[in-house]
Every structure is written in structure tokens, then in C-alpha cells.
Design a protein that fits this description.
three-stranded antiparallel β-sheet; 47% strand; 2 helices; 15% helix; mainly beta
């Protein structure tokens, strides 16, 4: 039966949902009750044949669950774990813009530890929340030979440090190396800022 049967909307006003067991063995099991003989007749007219002595029927809708692959398009492809018809667990998503995300998913979005590799090979490695960079992470700018390490909130880098990283082998390095920080205690300043954002992140979680 069609997925609309999950809510019972397709069968209204002729039926009433009298029981439901969701996510059991990867199935949604819903029991419907035909409210009257007259409604049975109306249902037969609109939806096809049904014997009059049938007062109950069951719709079983399989959920994608476990390991699997889904082709959203020729270029947007997900392979990994599923639960309750959504990407959940560890998985890899190939996007049409040639970027790739590999890591943890929850409720159909990147959540947890993961890596996003862009088409130019630059990449982010760190924490995600609801599909956004959110928490501690690192961003590698390989074409410039630089690395940013810090804290993100809602996809925005809030505090961290930028250092030269493989600048000698970079395709398009910066004209000058990053100068040394002149603060008396840069580690202390950075850790205080990091703690403030991370503590707030935990409170909002």
C-alpha cells in the first residue's frame, strides 16, 4: 500500500486507526477499522474491490533499515546506514558539486563526527549538528597550504588559530607565511574562548 497509509489520511473518513506499532523489525504496522457497512460500499466504489465481511485490514510499510544505497539523482548518492526511512548511523554522501561527506548521521542530517571534502580537495574534519559545522573542528586549505583549527557555531568559525600547513607543496600558496602570534599567552586566550563557545554549545544541545 502507499506511504500515505501511515497517517490514515488516504482512508479517511471511512476508517479509524485502532492500533499502530512503528519501527518494529523495520516495518510500520497499522490496523484500520472500517466504521460501517455504508463506508465499506463507499470505499469499494473509490478504491476497488473489498468483501463486505472484511472489517479490519492491516497495512505493512517497509522502512529502509540497515546498510543500503539511495540514488537521489545520477550525481547525488548516499551509501551507508538507514533507520526508520532516514539516514542514521555511519554513511557517505556524494553530492552533484563533487563534494563528499563521510561520517555520522542522525535524522537524515550530518550529526556527530564527520568529514566534508570539497571538489578542490579542501576539507573540514570535526563535529556536526543538524547538517552544520558545530563544535570543535579543523579546516584544511590545501591549495593555500594553511590549516584552521577552532570552534564552529551554526556553520560559522568563531575562534581558533590559523597556521601554515604544507605551504611548500601548496598549489597556490600565500605570498607570505603566517607571522607568529605576539600575545604573551596565546594558548590561554584561545582556550578561554574555546571553552566559552563549547560550554554554550553543550547548554544548547
Amino acid at each position: 500500500m502507499e506511504r500515505e497509509h501511515r497517517s490514515g489520511k488516504l482512508l479517511e473518513p471511512y476508517t479509524t486507526v485502532i492500533g499502530s506499532m512503528e519501527k518494529e523489525m523495520g516495518l510500520e504496522l497499522t490496523v484500520y477499522q472500517i466504521q460501517s457497512v455504508e463506508n465499506i460500499k463507499k470505499y469499494i466504489q473509490e478504491h476497488g474491490k473489498m468483501t463486505k465481511d472484511i472489517c479490519y485490514f492491516v497495512s505493512i510499510i517497509p522502512f529502509p533499515q540497515g546498510l543500503g544505497t539511495n540514488f537521489y539523482s545520477d550525481d547525488d548518492i548516499y551509501e551507508g546506514h538507514w533507520y526508520a526511512d532516514k539516514r542514521n548511523g555511519w554513511g557517505r554522501m556524494y553530492y552533484a558539486d563533487c563534494s563528499t561527506y563521510e561520517g555520522e548521521w542522525f535524522d537524515d542530517s550530518p550529526n556527530g563526527q564527520g568529514m566534508l571534502r570539497l571538489a578542490n580537495e579542501n576539507r573540514y574534519e570535526g563535529i556536526w549538528k543538524n547538517g552544520k559545522k558545530h563544535g570543535a573542528g579543523k579546516f584544511f586549505f590545501f591549495e593555500k597550504g594553511q590549516l584552521y583549527e577552532g570552534v564552529w557555531v551554526d556553520d560559522i568559525a568563531k575562534c581558533g588559530k590559523m597556521i601554515d600547513f604544507g605551504r611548500e607543496e601548496a598549489i597556490d600558496p600565500t605570498s607570505y607565511p603566517i607571522p607568529q602570534i605576539k600575545l604573551r599567552n596565546p594558548t590561554y586566550v584561545l582556550e578561554r574562548a574555546r571553552s566559552r563557545f563549547l560550554d554554550k554549545n553543550e547548554e544548547d544541545t
